[in-house]
Amino acid sequence: VVTDQTQEILKAYGKIYTLIKIDEISNTGAVRIRLRSLAAAVADRKKRRVLDDIKDAVLQKTSAVVQKAVQKKDAAVQKAVQKKDAAVQKAAAYRKVVFEKFMRKDYTILSPQMSPIHFEFLQAAFETSGYRFEILPSVDHAAVEEGLKYVNNDACYPSILVTGQLIEAIKSGRYDTNKLACIITQTGGGCRASNYISFIRKALKDAGYGHIPVISLSAAGLEKHPGLKITAAMLRRAMRGLVYGDLLNRLLLATRPYEKNPGETEAVLKKWKKIALDNVQHLSLKRFKRSIQDIVDAFEAIPVTGERKPVIGVVGEILVKYHPTANNQIVKVLEDEGAEVRVPDLIDFLLYCAYNTNFKHEKLGRSVWAKIAGNFVIYVIEKYRGQMRKVLKNSKRFSPPSFISEKAKAASEFLSIGNQTGEGWFLTGEMAELIAEGADGIVCVQPFACLPNHIVGKGVIQPIRAKYPDANIVAIDYDPGASEVNQLNRIKLMLSLAHEKIVKAEQQKSLA
Ligand code: SF4
């Protein structure tokens, strides 16, 4: 984001732009050459400017008439420069097109996909609240290609994917682009998740669709869009939808690998997803609570083999963790290789954001009201998933989610809870918890060029191994150019270690 904007501003002012990338493997020779040529270009400009100054001095001395003429010329030049500056500033700034009230009725709002099972419920929540809302398809490689055309390829993979999905859909001809809006979340934190909106606006402008409004969806209310009104009913629908999404995902992943009759779990999922979608629209608390019990009962009634399969946790950056295109169908890959996959709940991410207010108040001077608000949000969210927690706890085969304070405690053994950029301490907490629960392996999925998650993901593997020498964790980078074969080989190696671990444990058990 910074390099793109810097380049545009410098270009607009006719200045020299040089980008130097520095990382631990950068060839410093190349850096030196670029810096030298930058210095030479600056010196050359300076020299030319000195010559201009000398010329001016000579001119001043020649005659008063000439001097007057020069002053006149200077004033004209100054005026022209000021005019150009104003035009340049206007061109370099992105025009924020606001989503106005009148747009609400006829405009279609496009949202990029992140987690298909959860986002279907969010679509229902928006539609029932009176919006034309469309979540883009879950599996779409053309979106990556499109993203690469408009986003700097040094940006993190999720920003390329999110922008690509929207531009691809807009260009598809399926929509009236004069009645179209896009929506994107803004976390307000330090990573690019706050800047997706700028990437999208730039891409829209470059692709000739600068008139399309991009709505910012953020808890901090970073932008105002009068056409979008988040009502209490809408929030209730969205929250229940997320609870359903987490519950169905948990049950699906814990049952499908063991089903006796192939396809039965998917059929049960399809049936209950339809009912749950209907419940999200109707807002009956009684129906919601009853359905949670019924869903768990339905999955528990599926006949299973009872065999022991390696349990593999998938943790990492939120979009790559849940988006099947971004993670090259990791759940399918692992299940095809004979594993049970555990993907932590999406709601936990919201809880993590709310929990962070505690540290911000205690260590960073944020107001006590922010802390109270954060803890109130946690209380409310936990209320929504209270029934799910209770039913799962009483079930025979499934387990309930842990509390966010427990995750924070697990993470704080390895890093400070002040790590709050990207997934921050939450990612470390997920890994620590999975290991403590006895997971046989963990895949830590991280987008290439994602600085925060490389620190709190890959960066903590060593300290985790120091505490749990058996920890079987593999960190996999995902980006548009990543080799799938390489990813697969690393996953298979981690799986073979998990299988070995199980065999060893069974041998020890039989010897005992
Ligand atoms: S966490 Fe990483 S991948 Fe996700 S938006 Fe931030 S920088 Fe990009």
What is the distance, rounded to the nearest whole angstrom, between the alpha carbons of the first and last residues? 59 Å
What would CATH call the architecture of the largest domain? 3-Layer(aba) Sandwich
* CATH homologous superfamily heading of the largest domain: Response regulator
Number of domains: 3
Rounded mean pLDDT is 89
Low-confidence spans: none
Helical content class:
55-70%
- Radius of gyration (Å): 28 Å
Succession of helices and strands: HHHHEHEHHEHEHHHEHHEHHHHHEHHEH
Strand percentage, roughly? 5-15%
Helices, by number, come to 21
Which secondary-structure class do the elements indicate?
alpha/beta
Q: The CATH topology of the largest domain, please? A: Rossmann fold
How many distinct beta strands? 8
CATH class of the largest domain: Alpha Beta
Bound molecules: iron/sulfur cluster
| Main sheet characteristics | 4 strands, parallel
| Broad shape | globular
Largest sheet strand order: 2-1-3-4
